[in-house]
User: Fold ABC transporter ATP-binding protein from Mangrovicoccus algicola.
Amino acid sequence: MPIVSVQDVTKTYASGFQALKGVNLEIDEGEILALLGPNGAGKTTLISSICGITRPSSGRILVGGHDVVTQYRQARRLIGLVPQELNLEPFAPVGPGVAFSRGLFGLRRDPARVEAVLRQLSLWEKRNARMRELSGGMKRRVLIAKALAHEPRVLFLDEPTAGVDVELRRDMWKVVAELKRQGVTIILTTHYIEEAEAIADRIGVIADGQILLVEEKAQLMARMGRKNLSVHLREPVAAIPAALAGYELELCNGGRTLIYSYDTKSDGTGITRLLSDLQAAGLSLRDLETRQSSLEDIFVDLVKERP
Ligand SMILES: Nc1ncnc2c1ncn2[C@@H]1O[C@H](COP(=O)(O)OP(=O)(O)OP(=O)(O)O)[C@@H](O)[C@H]1O
Assistant:
């Protein structure tokens, strides 16, 4: 049984705007799913619906088998949510704040658990600091600690690394990997494709209130991946020779490099023929290199190709 099951969910806001247009999504226990999508795609609306903060207009959502509307308490107990905004009390101290979040779920005090969470997020030394004394990155960690205080089985991270520096982003990825090791299911939204590429098991692409695809990251990259062959020339050319028009080459690097894009899955890549045609056109080669297209290329193509 999936830990989260989203069934035909739509959401129309009071303004009449339809933010979700029939979303179906199953999330397995223990996986990391990254939801990628442009601004306004509906990512936050979807997460808020699963967490019971926004009520879907139609459809059904189950978390751990509990309906998030009719069995709100049981469902919510299983969920930790790290919101996008840093909505922390400026004067609240870190440690008691995390303990308080646990108490909100009616759980008994458990200082050992709170300490473990604080240590895991490198916040133990800061346990007596007030929120306003912390850096933005530390505040984000506090939000995660608060979301973990009641031992949720599913953790939602809404853009966990928006606006944080590269080092902190990598730190955050380590935290996510560690949580996965502990068996926590993680759903994160992100604008950063490299983030999805670095940590997700599966990738969901959402645009305009619809899920365009959900797929294993490795499969997605293999299925949709193209490769680019860069041909570096000894002498620059002003234009692509007419004899090579059929290859749809791109000329760059001041006329010194030709880029040929090919499908890694098709039977013939066309490379052999291209190389002999290059020679026939009188071009002499200095070097060749190939590059696998990234998730970013795939994502841009997907969102662009929509009717
Ligand atoms: N309370 C609301 N009332 C009306 N429209 C809303 C409301 N909340 C969100 N929307 C609209 O729904 C759409 C989806 O918003 P949502 O925040 O879910 O997108 P998102 O994918 O999370 O975007 P971002 O990446 O910018 O956070 C947007 O067009 C937004 O303006």
In short: The chain has two domains: 4-222, 226-304. The domain at 4-222 is CATH 3.40.50.300 (Rossmann fold). The pocket of adenosine-5'-triphosphate is lined by residues 13, 15, 17, 19, 37, 39-45 (CB under 6 Å). The chain has a mean pLDDT of 88.
